[in-house]
């Protein structure tokens, strides 16, 4: 028969199956008087069908605390829960910051596919960068531009174009004689705002290259005149005009030299004499007649001549050598033209040799006008003039240009050689009688 060993309360006394009394032991034997089923029952209760049995359920083991607390008794809150809450709060803050940043990026760039913004941002330049002080170069240029004009004059083959500047509020304009030379029609004046009006030629001084026009307008922004006698080499200057028909052009440079004497001959035209302010400001055709302006916004000269390496005047361009008539001279001549219709010409009362050459420089006097300035000062024919107001003389044109810088009645210092000895004399200049 099958033997069941599932631990149920079961026994077989004397080979008869049945329920025994609790705690009774079997008395059957297998030849020895003892049942082989219970030979070790005393030490193994699961082998004894009469032994009591129970299922014991032990509680699950608790995890150790996250950190030891010597004061903990096993009751109340644990410190581990506080750490959990702290981590949760920090995570929430980080998530909020990240969300805010992403929201800003998407809002300012229009999403992930938005346009790229170049530069450091901001809403334009600071006011300090867009508003120029009146004393700055930009401030000076802005103030002077309305006072500078473009002049167009008809000629036999077309028209001549140059520059000029408003000398008075009632419409007088100063320019170069060579700008209006050979006029065949009425001059026109164009302002910086492109307004154009007609003008009338009042008068010219050919040899000094100064001309005056008049517009029938009032309330105009006249320039402020400076003192060209106080200009120094190295002073910053602006030139304003219409080079190559480019109106309202401003260029910048410095005074390169003073009293630069130039004689300019034009085929079929007059010989012009300049004792000029030299500048390296860019000046080209069309700048003629425009103002040379100091850093204070005062006109110190009229841009008139350029030196070029070109073989003809039509292709000549700026190489950093330009020359302006000193404004003290130009203003005086313009005032004479306005008041008298023509300018007085300043003379020293001496004629010079065109053939005299000396390695040490100087110009030789050949004729002294009786009763003239040189005669009154004691200068005689044969004297060699070497300097006038300490400016060296090398050729006759130098003396003519320098003398015409000054007004009649002004006194100049003249150094000269006679019989090999140096002499020095003050000469009071006079106006020409012809």
From TrEMBL:
Organism whose genome encodes this protein: Rugosimonospora africana
Family: Belongs to the peptidase S1C family.
Highest taxon above the source species: Bacteria
Protein name per Swiss-Prot or TrEMBL: Protease
Keyword Protein biosynthesis on entry: no
One BP annotation, GO: proteolysis
Xref: SMART domains: PDZ (SM00228)
Amino-acid biosynthesis recorded as keyword: no
